[in-house]
Amino acid sequence: MACVVIWEIAAAEGKSAVEFRAFLIKLSGRQMKHNKVLYTNPALLAGLWSFISMLEALQTYSSEQLEQMKEMAERFFL
Fold first, then answer.
1. What are the two backbone dihedrals, phi and then psi, of residue 62, each rounded to the nearest 5 degrees?
2. pLDDT score for 1
3. Where are the domains of the chain?
4. Tell me: the pLDDT tens digits for 41-62?
5. Which alpha helices (DSSP H) does the chain contain, by range?
6. Is the model's pTM score more than 0.85?
7. Contacts for 49 with CB less than 8 Å, ≥ 6 apart
8. Among 74, 20, 30, 77, which Cα is nearest to 51's?
9. CA angle at residue 21 from 27 to 60, to 5 degrees?
């Protein structure tokens, strides 16, 4: 199922499709070859997985809970 969605995203045309693909690539954490390729299907899939996970977290936790978790995470990064 996910592969079909990725194929549709990859084949979509228009400005919003280009922006959505760029958004998914950014979420994927993958680097694309400069001026060679804008996206790959595996990178789109990784970004889509991150996006779905993010949406799940936003639906599950309140903004206060997310802020508390952010503060806890920052303790490990500093």
1. -75, 165
2. 76
3. 2-77
4. 999 999 999 999 999 999 999 9
5. 2-11, 15-28, 41-60, 63-77
6. no
7. 2
8. 20
9. 45
